[in-house]
Amino acid sequence: MNINILKFTTIILLLCCSCGNKNEIDVNGQSLIETTWKLAGIVDTQTGILKVLEREGCADCYSFTFDTDSTAFGISIVNHLGVSLRPIVRIFVMTYALDNHWDDTALFYNAISSIISYKLNKNELKFYYNDNKNYLLFKSQKS
Q1: What CA–CA distances, in Å, run from 93 to 35, 39, 77, 97, 99?
Q2: pLDDT tens by residue, 85-95
Q3: Which residue, 26, 67, 34, is CA-closest to 142?
Q4: May I ask the CATH architecture of the domain 32-141?
Q5: What residue ranges do the domains of the chain occupy?
Q6: Confidence (pTM)
């Protein structure tokens, strides 16, 4: 399936589900549109320890760019990802190539399957999971 058709369909579905909601997320007067976020790692909220999930030679791995203030598209290692902040907070896999044979990728997929909330500030976007014991920490990438 053409990725543009997939993106269009996903956007339409997300917009239909969020009718009546204000789809604008404002961070100190700055829109999320066209901002790019890259995974810094997984943080244990009790210890503060950051586990980095990075693939050498893959600058775009585990990153996404917002096309609206509440939807974004990106990539894990080989799979395309969708991100929704409204009406339901989630990161979801849009394609299903088998890239989960790397331990870190399987850890990432397990984390995104159980996201329960998020917190956003100027340069950090945190997706909480595991009863708020862990979060995926994404850092804003300056263009």
Answers
A1: 20, 15, 11, 10, 11
A2: 999 999 999 99
A3: 34
A4: Beta Barrel (2.40)
A5: 32-141
A6: 0.79
